[in-house]
Amino acid sequence: MFEDNDDRHYTVVHNDEEQYSLWPADRALPPGWTSVGVAGTKTACLEHIRTVWTDMRPKSLREFR
């Protein structure tokens, strides 16, 4: 089994298309990305993303009619 020994802290971010990612908490956010207010270990951040990002399609595609 793979063990993740990454002890850095991350923040969960999303963009205007409501796509999620994690970003090192000690770095400035890249343009176009906003923190969602969740930070912690890589494992905790990824678990949050798995919980909230249930439809992987970009917002513009979900809203296309």
UniProtKB/TrEMBL annotation:
It comes from Saccharothrix mutabilis subsp. mutabilis. SMART domains: MbtH. Pfam families: MbtH. SUPFAM superfamilies: MbtH-like. This is MbtH-like domain-containing protein. It comes from the Bacteria. PANTHER family: ENTEROBACTIN BIOSYNTHESIS PROTEIN YBDZ. InterPro entries: MbtH-like_dom, MbtH-like_sf, MLP_fam. Residues 1-51 form the MbtH-like domain.
